[in-house]
Amino acid sequence: MEKTENAQSCQDKCEEDIPKSSPFDFVIKQFQGKKSSPGKRKEQPSAIRKFFEGFDFVKSEVKDRRETEETEINTSRADDQNEKEDLSIEDGPSHLISEAESPTGKQRFNQFMQKLGKKPNSKNLDLNNCALSATDVTELASLLPFLPELEEISLSWNGGIGGSLKALTVQLHHVNLLKVLRLNNCRLTAEDVTSLGEAFEIVPQLEELDLSWNSNIGGKLSLLTKKLQKGCKIRFLKITDCNLTAKDGESLAQILNVIPNLEVLDLSINKHIGCSMKIIAQDLKNVPGLKQLNLHMCGLKQDSLQALDTALQHLAELRKLDISGNKEIGGGFKDSTAHLANLKNLEVLDLHQCCVTEEDMTILSQVIPLLSSLQELNLSSNKNVGVSSDPLLGRLRFLPKLKSVAISNCCLREESFSSLAEAALHLPELEILDLSWNKCVGGNLKLLLEALKLATEIQVLRLSSCNLVTEDLALLILLTQDGHLARLQKLDLSYNDNISDEGWAIFFKGLAVFKELSELDVSLRPSSCRDCGMWFSELLAALTKLPALAELGMQRWVLSESQRKRLESFNQDNKRSIRFDC
Hints:
The chain has 21 helices and 19 strands. The chain has helices at about 1-15, 25-30, 45-50, 55-90, 95-100, 105-115, 135-145, 165-170, 190-200, 220-225, 245-255, 275-285, 300-310, 360-365, 385, 415-425, 450-455, 470-480, 500-510, 535-545, 560-575; strands at about 125, 150-155, 180, 210, 235-240, 265, 290-295, 320, 350, 375-380, 405, 430-435, 460, 490, 520, 530, 550-555, 555-560, 580. It is globular, with a radius of gyration of 38 Å.
């Protein structure tokens, strides 16, 4: 019964909405009596409507009227849709721009970034190390039309996107302002490399391409480069550790012919590329603006070094040359430094672990002091640096702009160490000094005393495994008490097991003067361990006065239970966040 009344009420409501043009309105008006007040809803249908409610022609008229209205609405919608389609065809790119600026597009992009825990940025898309999947790449590709101002895409360290790059590259025409594309360690496949190569012609503004640590690129570099056009704007090309082959070296040489603006070329850790270094070196003349050349661990040999030196005559703008980790070039500097000496703008020279011979040292002693702009020199892990009678270290005095000197593991003798100490007196801008793994430093740190007094800019001092003794630590503290080493930020004293507990106590008691110290390492050698002695309390007291300290290395020091608890509670008690490496 209730269901029937509700149906009746709905039917009455529909009939109340019959337009005034109904032929029965004049009859209804005769029976209505007083009109309802404006704005009030009639509570009951009139008697005359009850009388006519059973007639089919009234229902039919209502139905016809509704069908007519629905037809008109649908027609109107179709017309609007046609107008939108016409506009999209006529307006072309301008339609894409308006779509990119639509709230819907922005909202989708914001949601995507928030899902990944990243802050949205319409110009710089930083999604490094976000555990992206192939599905994420597809979703990202669909968002590119909404990012017309995008200039940087960084997807590095996302191994899950390998094999899915094509979904992204086919949409890159929406971001033709793109300047930077970084895809480090993404497990790129041959298909990815091909699709990326095909995309080069639709990103004409690209300036930086970083594909490092993608081993599958090896042997396929030609797939990447075939679409590069002459006059390409690429300035930074990084292909570190990509398993490049000798054939890739030939492809790379061809690339150099079409990227005249190249400033940085990084081929590090591609041990087979050295076989084609002669071919590459011949085409380096096509990139005269090159500023950085990184060939660390590229399997270079003596003949490679000679070819490279010939190419240097065309690279007057070179600022950094790294040929470290190429052990087979040792003995090849005799005929390979003629043009090195002419690099007046060279600021960084890295020759560590090159197995230089004594004969090489003789040549380098004459060449390196001529590099008047040199700021960083790394000769580490070349044993003949320390044993050679040629005065290379003493001649560093002719390089007053030096800021970083690394001579670790060079078998320094007291004589060569003394020469270095004297040269350091003439290096007022020195910021980094690494003497680690040179046993002669222990007990002789006093030779460096005057140089450290003058080195007002020193920020990093590495003395790991130097056979330091208690007197050496006391000397360091004495320097600080006189106001020296005030800017020191990193101090490495690890693997100096000969220092007594008394020496460590003296050191930690005076440690508080290193107000800018951020890293300190006092770890013991892997083969040893010792109990923390009376100096532990001095250490904790000093830590409260070192506001910048963020990391403390204490490996193989054995803490008692109470000492460990005090160390664990230190950060909470003092509102600090020091990382203790114990």
